Amino acid sequence: MASSTADTTGQEAPLTLDQPAPRVLSFWDQSAFWANLGVSLFAFSGAYTVLAPNTEGAAQISIAAGIVAMIIGTVVGGLMLGLAAVPGAKTGKPAMMLLRGLFGAKLSYVPTVLNIAQLIGWGTFELIVIGNAAEEMFGGGPRWLYVVVAGVITTVLTIWPLGSVRLLRRFVTVGVGVALLWFYIQFFREGLPDLTADPGPEGSGPFGADWSLFWIATDAALAVSISWMPVAADYTRHSRSTKAAFGAASGAYGLTQILAYILGLFALALSTGDGTYGPFLSVTLGAAFFFILVLREADQSFANVYSTAVSIQNLAPRVDRRALSIGLGALITVLALWLDMDDYFGFLGLIGSVFVPLLGVLVADFFLRSGGEWNTSADAPSRWGMILAWLVGLSVYQLINPGDAGVWTDAWVRVQEWLHFTKQPWMSASLLSFLAAVAVAWLVGRFVDRRASVSARG
Fold first, then answer.
1. Which InterPro entries match (predicted)?
2. What is the pLDDT of residues 326-359, one digit of tens each?
């Protein structure tokens, strides 16, 4: 659905949900936004989660197998992200407000609260990564100062979100592209070791991969992409067309995340124990180009904080997003000074189990059943059947991959034992939970439509 072609470059995102969203973002604006989100320091510091999925200690799959897992997970996750972007572009509604049409107004509060929690977690992790990277880049210094500066930059960007997106397109994206190219050239000059080397006794199959862990690694890569799914419409509601929204979200994000993760895996291959980012800082002009990536990381925390504010507005529609953004910026800064990244993989697993099946329900109802016609008003009726489909998908995910989340994981392991369920190497938690949610949501929708038709005839 294209918007007016009038000049609206001076317009900003609305302050409350009562105001309409200006359609001002072109395909290239959105491509720059998603491309920058795809390049994250998480791809460097978190690349090891692909090689040692759901385990502790040494790598369990080879770097080559990790690259294959990462590409598959990112491509599938990018397509899912593109699907999640379309409803916002078509309706002009933010992500959590759209869930009023999927679940009903009151029931939409459940995924809204979960989304707020995961976004605060992501925003906090981003500031932790920025602080750690800056500390390593400058050889020490006051880490708290790096975190506070990153928190301030994040908060300022959220005050003018659409202006920040345009800023990324005009200035930041080119610098990031040059930095990535520079590091690829330098790493190849360094000479990469054997990427197919068997990491240990667990290795089997092509590239030394244990395929039971290979699919867990794929799910880990997919979870990073899908973590943006519940916020995509917050930005694509400003898109000039649905095609631009889908193409930018699926294509630009997927491409740059693949490039960033492969670079992170190469860095692991070249690492000599000289810190997480040692391989980047040790090459010619490495510190200068790495500084670009560290500075750019603020767009990740900006996107998380802005979407947290918009998600809160689904609960309190008339609260000014600027006030919410300032409070949230201060909150994640405090949390980043207090917490660490020890539970990163468990965090990813929980995100995937919640939001992959949620997207499945959305796809079944928005694209296959309703044709995009949803009631997103404050009194939209509850739709318990869609909640059921979501919970079925979540259960499938947890049965296949309970993750590493303490008591939550222990409970699902007991369910596995009670059902005498044994995961098979070919099972992907993300894909099977997505398909299960689609199937149940479609069947529930057909049943409801048939009852409505019978009632109308009666």
1. CodB (IPR030191), Pur-cyt_permease (IPR001248)
2. 999 999 999 999 877 665 556 656 777 888 899 9
Whether the Cβ atoms of residue 351 and residue 343 lie closer than 8 Å to each other: no
Task: Write down the pLDDT at residue 8.
Answer: 40
Separation CA 27–CA 98 (nearest Å) = 22
For the chain, the residue count is 458
Count of Cβ atoms closer than 10 Å to residue 428 Cβ: 21
Q: pLDDT value at position 72?
A: 92
Distance of CA 275 to the CA centre of its chain: 26
Tens digits of per-residue pLDDT, 277-322? Answer: 889 999 999 999 999 999 999 999 999 999 999 999 999 999 999 9
Q: Which of 343, 337, 312 is nearest to 326 (CA)?
A: 312
What stretches of 20-108 show up as alpha helix (H) in DSSP?
27-38, 42-45, 48-51, 63-91, 95-103
Relative orientation angle of helices 384-400 and 429-457, to the nearest 10 degrees: 160
> What is the pTM assigned to this prediction?
0.87
Kindly state the DSSP code that residue 13 receives in the 8-state scheme: -
Confidence of residue 368 (pLDDT cuts 50, 70, 90): confident
Residues 6+ apart with CB under 8 A from 219: 53, 73, 349, 352, 401, 428, 429, 430
Domains plus CATH for the chain? 27-345 (1.10.4160.10)
Q: Which two tokens stand for residue 373?
A: 């016609």
Task: Give the closest residue to 214 by CA, choosing from 361, 421, 357, 73.
Answer: 73
Report d(CA 47, CA 265) in Å as an integer.
6
Q: Which pLDDT band holds residue 206 (cuts at 50, 70, 90)?
A: low
d(CA 3, CA 245): 13
What average pLDDT does the segment 84-113 reach? 93
Integer Rg of the chain from CA: 22
Cβ distance 365 to 102 under 8 Å? yes
Other C-beta atoms closer than 10 Å to the C-beta of 385 total 18
For residue 276 the two structure tokens come to: 């997480």
Cα–Cα distance, 151 to 298 (Å, whole number): 8
